[in-house]
Design a protein that fits this description.
Elements lengths: L4 H56 L2 H14 L5 E5 L12 H17 L6 E6 L18 H4 L12 E9 L2 E7 L15 H40 L13 H47 L4 H27 L7 E4 H14 L4 E3 L5 E4 L1 H18 L3 E7 L3 E7 L21 H6 L7 H11 L3 E6 L5 E8 L5 H4 L1
Parallel strand pairs: 6-8
Antiparallel strand pairs: 1-4, 2-3, 3-4, 5-7, 8-9, 9-11, 10-11
Helix pairs in contact: 1-3, 1-5, 5-6, 6-7, 9-11
């Protein structure tokens, strides 16, 4: 099944139209075949009676008069049969067996045998005009004058099948009768799936499908706009205006989405104000407590107070920093990773740390400050908790990987899933970096997820931790690139 609503509705509607057409055509074809069989049976019965009357007439004539009567028929007309006298049956070219042609031959033979049971031998068959032979010497339609057959047989512009009746009148004397069915093209009318009918069905199906597709697109276009608005809101971008037309259900959903977006926006703003207020309000009493701690006579107690107050001040700053770092408002743009990472690598080397990085020439579409903050957090962790840090960038058709690896002790496998939790620090981390708060990885993951990406942590082969930022490959519109 297609993944989109447009594809699914289109497929269901197309399948429904095809099913209805198939069922309707099957019923219509069955009815048409039944009517065609009835018409052919009735027509063949009348034709059999006419042929039996002609045979009976020739049987009543003296042998010497038969040829004169046939010549009179040819000159004057007035009969539906082309007649000829032969010494034996004329062989006919094979004719494709079809239901209606077989039914017609059986009905004519049945009627003649019922009316003339004394007929010794009887042969009834169909032949096409170009294969028709009138005598045993191979004489065909082209070998006889046109006036003999032009009012009896149809040879052009569209040939019709000819019924040939051959009966033995007496020993060595055969009567040859050739004629058309009352409906010369009865075989064509029996095919419910002829070219013109199939073409009509296909055109009907295409017309219904195109109209259905337009209706489905009209219905799903507002949903696509709602999806784009929700995606933009989730990434922190400006939300496009939703259409104010559409079905009642869509309008209700759009209004509910707008109200939800306003509530979430108010919540985010209130959260920022709350943390700013808490940070501001707590700093004043913290400073007062530090001043009062200075008045303590016991140096050990004063030092413990200072340590606790410094830790409290650090927690407040860390919480505020977590909120700010996770909510960086920027527009996505094309970023050359070599330039972005190269500046960080130079700063690390100036600090006396060992780091390896090779230029890749790869660019990504992201928010510059946010991506820099995520990479910086991972890089700082690698520098604090490991050594000999390396950064590598790789690209596939669907994503870009920014891998940061250290050669430290790594992380126990069972602890990998908890590294993103706030304030979680392992024993090795507390020993290596006592000023850390355990918020960097969570902030980095939130930033990467806001870019529709994924932050993967795993122990590297040979030791150390490998942190990989995986971002989807995106293409900016021309206007944004300019």
């Amino acid at each position: 099944m297609p993944q989109s609503l447009l594809g699914r509705l289109s497929l269901v509607m197309l399948a429904g139209v095809m099913l209805v057409q198939f069922a309707g055509n099957a019923i219509w074809a069955a009815q048409m075949r039944s009517e065609a069989r009835t018409e052919v049976r009735t027509a063949a019965e009348h034709l059999g009676h006419s042929a039996a009357s002609s045979l009976r007439y020739f049987l009543s004539l003296p042998v010497n008069y038969r040829g004169l009567v046939i010549q009179q028929f040819r000159e004057m007309g007035g009969t539906r049969f082309f007649a000829n006298l032969t010494d034996g049956p004329v062989s006919m070219a094979p004719f494709a067996d079809e239901e209606l042609s077989t039914l017609a031959l059986q009905q004519v033979r049945k009627v003649i045998q019922q009316e003339l049971p004394a007929i010794r031998q009887l042969q009834v068959s169909f032949a096409w005009p170009q294969d028709l032979r009138f005598s045993q010497d191979g004489t065909g339609i082209s070998d006889v004058p046109d006036k003999w057959v032009e009012h009896i047989l149809v040879t052009r512009p569209k040939p019709a099948p000819i019924m040939v009746i051959q009966a033995e009148l007496d020993s060595g004397n055969w009567l040859y009768l050739a004629t058309l069915m009352p409906n010369p093209y009865f075989l064509n009318g029996s095919d419910p799936f002829s070219g013109d009918r199939v073409l009509l069905q296909v055109l009907t199906l295409l017309a219904v499908f195109v109209l259905s597709l337009l209706v489905v697109r009209w219905i799903t276009r507002p949903l696509a706009a709602l999806s784009s608005a929700a995606d933009a809101f989730g990434q922190g971008d400006s939300v496009p205006a939703l259409p104010d037309t559409g079905s009642k259900e869509f309008l209700n959903t759009a209004r509910a989405f707008a109200l939800m977006r306003e509530r979430i926006q108010r919540y985010i703003e209130d959260r920022e104000r709350l943390f700013v207020s808490i940070s501001h309000d707590l700093r004043t009493p913290i400073m007062r407590l530090k001043l009062r701690a200075e008045l303590l006579d016991d140096d050990a107690t004063r030092s413990e107070f200072h340590d606790d107050l410094d830790e409290l001040d650090m927690m407040v700053k860390g919480a505020l920093q977590c909120v700010k770092d996770s909510d960086i408002h920027e527009n996505p743009t094309a970023i050359r990773l070599d330039a972005l990472i190269g500046r960080m690598v130079r700063d690390v080397k100036l600090g006396g740390h060992a780091i390896a990085f090779e230029a890749s020439g790869i660019s990504v579409v992201a928010k510059p400050l946010a991506l820099k903050r995520a990479i910086s957090n991972l890089l700082n962790n690698a520098l604090h908790y490991g050594k000999d840090v390396g950064i590598a960038v790789h690209r596939t058709e669907t994503y870009v990987d920014i891998a940061i690896r250290d050669h430290g002790p790594g992380v126990p496998e069972q602890a990998l899933a908890t590294l993103f939790d706030p304030y979680v620090r392992l024993e090795h981390g507390r020993q290596s970096n006592q000023s850390g708060m355990g918020l960097g990885l969570g902030i980095a993951r939130d930033i990467v997820q806001a870019h529709q990406g994924e932050l993967i942590l795993q122990n590297a082969a040979g030791g150390g931790l490998l942190a990989c930022i995986r971002l989807p490959v995106q293409v900016l519109p021309d206007s944004a690139q300019d």
